Every structure is written in C-alpha cells, then in structure tokens.
C-alpha cells in the first residue's frame, strides 16, 4: 500500500513538472519552487523548512516523490525490469565521496560556477534533459497529431515550431540522459547516493529519522530478497541494519519481504 501511494504521488508530481518544463502548464510551477537545492539557493525558507522537516522526521521521501530526477531514475529501472530482472546487493556507503561532492558543489556555487554545479544538481540536470531533449520530441509528436487532424478534416491543433536552443546545451543534456539512464539501470540510485548534493544534505537529516524502515531480526530469515530489490543498496541483511541516510523510502522492500520483517514506523 505504501509503495502504491508513493508511486501515485510521484507520478502526479513528475507529470506536473514535465508539463511545466514543456510550457504546457505554468500553474505547476509551484512544484519547481519546492525543489530542495534551488530553494536553498533562493533562500526560500518555507520550502527548505518543509522538506528538511519531513526528511528529519520520516526520511528521504522527497527523493522518491518530489525530485524529478529521482522519479526519472525509477522509470528507467522499471523499463529495464520489463526486459531483464534487476537484482541489487548491499554495498557500504561512500561517505567520503558524498561529502567531497557536496563540498565541491558548494565551492562552485560560491565561486560563480553555478552553471557547472548544475550538471549534478538534480532539478537542474533533469530540467536540462526535459527542455533540450523532451521539448523538441513533444513538438514532433504534437505536429504528427496536427497532421493527422488535418488529414481527417479537423484542423483543431496548431503545429508547433521545432527548434534547438543550443547545440552545446543539447550535447550536455544528451550525455546526462545517457549517463543517468545507464547508472539507474545498472545500479539504481547510485547517482543519488554518491554525487547528488541534495542526496548528501538530506541524507544527513534522514540518518536519525524516528519514522524509518525497521528490520525485525526476530522475523528475518536472512533470505536477502529485500536487499536484492533495494535500489539504494542500503540493506545489510547479514547485520540486520539499514543505512537510513541512503534509503529513499521507495517502500519496495516492505512488499518484497515474505515474513513481514520490514515495516515503516
């Protein structure tokens, strides 16, 4: 049930943000204003406080519901599973890499390198992909529908102009798309728990969240099914521990466990 609710909420947010990026629904811009890193840089204390408060209380729900790049990675993994089963395993957290990445991001922003820092900032990275790759594709699809309508004698849709905003930006967006898609297909949320600045900051808050995924050692038979489905690779079955700082609250593990050893409480 938790997983289903998370998927519905994430789907609604993802569609709303994509409509905003593609210029179809300006009203969904509110979803853009609650993105964590941009809110921090804009000193949007309400948005920052809301995201930080929820994360400190219940973990990184933001990463699986609100962050468009996080949802994009989940979609890639879902597509991959339609063709080949994906199996993960526990891996120790890369604390030094995460800290170094977050520090480098902060230095770049403070030194005027925001454009370069935006390559790994999740909202900016996905926005670049949606604007430079998906927007022209959406225009092509809209024009195809317009042509069909004209053919059927119902010219109710106007054709859109297809243009590329910049070849260098298109190249960066293309490389980002491929790199993120491959990483997500092979290693789930690898990006989120290594180089993502939002993941590093929210991970610190989520580490001690009182509402968390809990593993009941009395019920656990160490079959490892939960670890195999954990896209964050944060469930250590052998020690009966879960790295809360990396868990993105996708709730897949709870539904996978056949013994009811996992719960969110």
Task: Describe the structure using short key phrases.
265 residues, mainly alpha, two-stranded antiparallel ribbon, 4 strands, 59% helix, 4% strand, globular
Described by the principal axes of the CA atoms, the overall outline is: globular
| Relative strand content | under 5%
Order of helices and strands: HHHHHHHHHHHEHEEHE
- Overall pLDDT, averaged? 88
Spatial order of strands in the largest sheet? 1-4
Q: Mind explaining what this structure looks like?
A:
The protein is mainly alpha-helical and about 260 residues long. The protein has one domain (about 1-125, about 165-265). The chain is about 60% helix and about 5% strand. The chain is built from 13 helices and four strands. It has helices at about 1-20, 30-35, 35-40, 45-60, 60-65, 70-85, 95-110, 115, 120-150, 165-185, 195-205, 225-230, 250-255, and strands at about 215, 235, 240, 260-265. The strands form two sheets. It has a two-stranded antiparallel sheet.
List the helices and strands and how they pair.
Blueprint lengths: L1 H20 L7 H5 L2 H6 L3 H14 L2 H5 L2 H16 L11 H16 L3 H4 L4 H30 L15 H21 L9 H10 L6 E3 L9 H5 L5 E2 L4 E2 L9 H5 L5 E3 L1
Antiparallel strand pairs: 1-4, 2-3
Short description:
With 265 residues, this protein is mostly helical.
């Amino acid at each position: 049930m938790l997983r289903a609710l998370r998927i519905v909420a994430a789907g609604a947010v993802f569609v709303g943000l994509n409509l905003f990026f593609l210029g179809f629904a300006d009203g969904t811009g509110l979803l853009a204003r609650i993105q964590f890193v941009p809110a921090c840089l804009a000193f949007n204390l309400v948005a920052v406080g809301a995201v930080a408060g929820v994360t400190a209380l219940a973990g990184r729900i933001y990463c699986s519901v609100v962050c468009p790049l996080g949802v994009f990675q989940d979609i890639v993994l879902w597509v991959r599973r339609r063709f080949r089963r994906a199996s993960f395993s526990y891996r120790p957290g890369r604390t030094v890499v995460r800290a170094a990445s977050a520090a480098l991001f902060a230095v770049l922003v403070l030194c005027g390198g925001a454009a370069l820092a935006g390559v790994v900032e999740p909202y900016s990275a996905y926005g670049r992909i949606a604007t430079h790759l998906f927007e022209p594709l959406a225009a092509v699809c809209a024009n195809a529908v317009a042509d069909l309508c004209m053919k059927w004698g119902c010219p109710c849709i106007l054709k859109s102009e297809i243009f590329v905003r910049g070849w260098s930006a298109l190249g960066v967006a293309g490389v980002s798309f491929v790199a993120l898609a491959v990483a997500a297909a092979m290693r789930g949320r690898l990006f989120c728990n290594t180089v993502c600045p939002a993941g590093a900051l929210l991970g610190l808050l989520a580490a001690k969240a009182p509402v968390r995924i809990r593993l009941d050692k009395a019920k656990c038979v160490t079959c490892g099914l939960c670890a195999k489905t954990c896209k964050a690779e944060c469930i250590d079955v052998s020690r009966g521990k879960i790295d809360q700082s990396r868990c993105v609250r996708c709730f897949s593990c709870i539904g996978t466990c056949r013994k009811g050893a996992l719960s969110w409480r």
